[in-house]
Specification:
- The protein has 18 helices and 13 strands.
- By secondary structure, the chain is α/β, with parallel strands linked by helices.
- Helix 12 packs parallel to helix 14 and helix 13 runs antiparallel to helix 14.
- The radius of gyration is 26 Å and the shape is elongated.
């Protein structure tokens, strides 16, 4: 795959890990007390919050989304099947996640929110999030950076979402009303930034017979309009209430796995295969590091086949390695387990795999051209140098926060990893090992030169 060393770190394409924003609020509340009759056949009578999307429960996704965004402490409100939910939550980030029992959870999610008042009412601002609302990468970044009470809204929901969601009346950028009865086309995304005033508003709403969170937030908006922040462009969210919603969330999750900076081979050949495989294997929750080692194993087998002159087998295995190489990063994002340590391991193993495949091609070319060992050695070294330095240059540019070259345009030179493996496959199947090495050396070195020139011109 054409990617940087931080492919397994959850930051936007082209940004460094240090550029990821931190939340202004320190504490968050996840409401996971209710049950859903419409998900009963999937949940098997258990808590809705424990339903799994791609191997990860909804409540775990909510918690990890918040922690990844910079939240330090998450309080999970439990009610229906409190024991199993609390047990599952207890295994997630010990020391950062706590459970609170809402004894009156059956009255509504507003009553569930009231149960956590002693834990969060001293906070200037805190996040309130529904456990069954799923968000794509960095979907919460605008809300969590707000300095005053706010709500994340979707101004362009689909017809199904508009029918089911809580509608929001927005005036001059502020949310001033909430409710399914409103004649509005904007819906809230199930996540709010609130102050302790919400608890008094919840009590007033409950006295008037409305124990829902929407009722409490409506009372809050009467006092202090909430900043209405639209869902960031390029991300997604989904409210999971039915089995069909789970399927839709799975589809949205798969579509979010490709990276903007992917090369053309990744976008049109590898990702359509790897993302489906990653989701198919997701219930097993395979370690991303394990998948990195599996990709290395296939790469070493491909290198051995090429060294033995088995061009068709070696070429196909090299392309399979390229597909598998995308799965470790995809698994990390699906499971929300992306780390800098995993990215480092992935990058090191990728370089080992690249070198092994190119050396395998060199040994095959040397056997086919015993009269020109110097030429074969020189071309092999050029290919190894170009492929290694091309990737290293991207990582140094990111590490030093230099302005990037147009990587999407450069990727069409096939100097990225996805392009290299495709060139290896094509020329190996054609029984042209030296030509494969020349093509890799030429495309990777040209990409390297243009990248460096572009960066220098921009600075």
């Amino acid at each position: 795959m054409a990617k940087t060393e931080n492919d397994r770190v959850q930051v936007p394409s082209g940004a460094s890990p240090e550029a990821a924003p931190l939340a202004r609020a320190r504490v968050a509340v996840v409401l996971a007390a209710g049950r859903s009759e419409r998900l009963a056949r999937v949940a098997g009578g258990g808590s809705k919050a424990l339903n799994r999307l791609a191997g990860v429960s909804l409540v775990e996704r909510a918690i990890r989304t918040l922690l990844d965004a910079g939240i330090e402490e998450v309080h999970v409100v439990v009610g229906y099947h409190a024991g199993p939910v609390a047990a599952a939550v207890g295994r997630i980030a010990p020391g950062h996640v706590r459970t609170v029992l809402a004894e009156d959870w059956e009255l509504g999610n507003g009553a569930s929110l009231a149960a956590v008042a002693p834990q969060v009412e001293h906070e200037a601002l805190f996040v309130v999030m529904m456990a069954d609302h799923v968000f794509g990468d960095r979907g919460l970044r605008r809300l969590l950076q707000s300095e005053r009470p706010a709500v994340l809204v979707d101004p362009h929901p689909t017809a199904d979402v508009l029918e089911e969601g809580t509608r929001v009346r927005v005036e001059d950028g502020d949310a001033v009303g909430f409710g399914k009865h409103l004649d509005e086309s904007t819906v809230d995304c199930g996540v709010f930034l609130l102050s302790a005033e919400i608890f008094e508003c919840q009590r007033r709403a409950a006295l008037e017979g409305d124990a829902t969170l929407a009722g409490a937030v409506s009372k809050f908006a009467d006092r202090r309009p909430l900043q209405a922040l639209t869902l960031p462009k390029g991300t997604w969210w989904h409210d999971v209430d039915t089995p069909e919603d789970l399927s839709e969330a799975r589809r949205l999750l798969r579509r979010s796995l490709p990276k903007y900076a992917d090369g053309p081979v990744s976008r049109f050949v590898n990702r359509p295969v790897s993302t489906r495989l990653s989701l198919w294997f997701s219930p097993a929750r395979l370690s991303p590091d394990l998948l990195s080692w599996v990709a290395l194993l296939f790469g070493l087998v491909a290198a051995s086949a090429l060294a033995a002159g088995l061009g068709i087998a070696g070429g196909i295995l090299a392309q399979v390695t390229s597909v598998l190489d995308g799965m470790d990063g995809e698994a990390a994002r699906i499971q929300m387990r992306a780390t800098s340590q995993g990215a480092l391991l992935d990058g090191v193993l990728d370089r080992v795999t690249d070198a092994a495949i190119l050396v395998g091609l060199g040994l095959w070319a040397l056997d086919a051209m015993p009269s020109a060992p110097g030429v074969v050695l020189l071309v092999t070294l050029a290919a190894v140098f170009g492929s290694t330095m091309s990737m290293a240059s991207k990582d140094r540019i990111t590490a030093h926060r230099l302005r990037h070259a147009n990587e999407r345009a450069l990727s069409w030179l096939l100097g990225g990893r996805d392009g290299r493996m495709l060139l290896v496959m094509v020329f190996s199947i054609a029984n042209l090992p030296l030509a494969a090495l020349v093509a890799v050396a030429a495309t990777s070195c040209l990409t390297l030169a243009l990248r460096i020139a572009s960066v220098r011109l921009q600075h």
